[in-house]
Design goal:
globular
Length: 156
């Protein structure tokens, strides 16, 4: 196939994506705001500022054909557990990933996925606020149902 055969017009893309065209950006925004609130340490988080930053990153990234930008809870948790305090940690992590891909990729293929998952779980486990379950249980038990459904849905 040539490039022209793979091209899809806007109407074709919208029909292929369907309702995902609304849901995916909404989830990306919610994830970004949730991560900001999770690591704000009690400081107020301006959700509109987060949305503007996310939108500008995606607009400017589209000019250089980048992947869509969004937040990553596991990467943020690993950076937090490692003691990273500035956005420069992302640059450092990116450089390490590029070096790893350039020189260690043949060796990384033999690392079991369970080992890589254990590294992420170890970093994220400390961000679970299990002490909040009892106050929610006492105030409104029906609020725990979606939380437990998400937890067990992700677990299994």
């Amino acid at each position: 196939k040539t490039i022209m055969e793979d091209d899809t017009d806007l109407q074709g893309m919208i029909s292929q994506l369907g309702s995902a065209i609304i849901i995916i950006p909404l989830i990306a925004i919610l994830q970004c705001v949730a991560i900001a609130k999770s690591f704000a340490r009690g400081k107020p988080v301006d959700a509109s500022q987060e949305m503007i930053a996310l939108g500008l990153c995606n607009i400017f990234g589209s000019f250089v054909q980048s992947m869509p930008v969004t937040a990553c809870f596991s990467r943020t948790a690993v950076n937090s557990a490692s003691g990273v305090k500035t956005p420069l940690g992302g640059l450092y992590t990116g450089c390490l990933v590029i070096l790893c891909l350039a020189f260690l990729l043949p060796y990384c293929a033999f690392i079991p996925q369970a080992t890589l998952a254990a590294v992420i779980i170890t970093a994220v486990i400390f961000s679970v606020e299990y002490e909040e379950v009892m106050p929610i249980w006492r105030s409104k038990r029906s609020d725990l149902l979606p939380g437990f459904a998400c937890f067990f849905g992700c677990l299994f």
